[in-house]
Amino acid sequence: MWVLPDGYLVKINTTKTDYGRYHFAKFGNLLDIEKLDDEDFGIYVCIVKSPDGSILAFKKGINVDGPYYGDLLEKYRSYAITGAIAASVMFVFASVFCFICHRQQAKGQDGMDEWRKAHPGKIWQSNEVEHVYDNKALESDVALEKRGTEMSEVVADYHLKEEKNGRPDLNTKL
Questions:
Q1: Can you tell me the distance from the alpha carbon of 119 to that of 138, in angstroms, rounded to the nearest whole number?
Q2: Are 29 and 50 in contact (CB under 8 A)?
């Protein structure tokens, strides 16, 4: 006798061995399923009564937690549609952004060309303020020293001396 995954109990006799898509060997020890489908996946139990009266059960699984053999397009259709819509929306936003940036750049270049035609020989200077870090104390021989509330200039007296490794060494005297 066999217990199918849906709980249906099939008692095998020697005269009838076909039960729909299920085909059993003469003594029921072999099961053949025609056109295996998703609803056939699960645990099959073969229950055998031996001549000495003991009962044995053999379990066999078909695709238990295994790969999916059904229609993947049907299974993931909603996710594929959602992904396609999201990708389309992102493509439209990116295209509009690129179009606007290109248009702004073209306007700026046209304005620059007009200015150059109106002012031949002049160099374009931006009206924007540039902030540059400049440490004059490192570039010149003059440094500022603060003592109390007074600021005074200190002039550095320095000379170069060759070291053993061939690199110059700056010795500064204040």
A1: 39
A2: no
Q: What is the pTM of this model?
A: 0.38
Does residue 17 contact residue 27 with C-beta atoms inside 8 Å? no
State the DSSP string of 82-151: HHHHHHHHHHHHHHHHHHHHHHHHHHHHHHHHHHHHHSTTPPP--SSPP-----HHHHSSEEEEEETTEE
Average pLDDT, integer, range 91-105:
92
Q: Report the pLDDT value the prediction gives residue 126, as an integer from 0 to 100.
A: 59
User: 123: which 2 tokens?
Assistant: 């160099």
Counting runs of H as helices and runs of E as strands, what totals does the chain give? 2, 11
> Is the sign of the CA dihedral 22, 26, 27, 29 positive or negative?
negative
Give residue 172's pLDDT band: very low, low, confident or very high (50, 70, 90).
very low
117: left (phi over 0), alpha (psi -120 to 50) or beta: alpha
Residue 153, C-beta contacts closer than 8 angstroms, at least 6 positions apart: 142, 143, 144, 145
Strands 31-33 and 42-49: unpaired
Res. 174 pLDDT band, cuts 50 70 90 = very low
Q: How far apart are CA 124 and CA 61, in angstroms?
A: 80
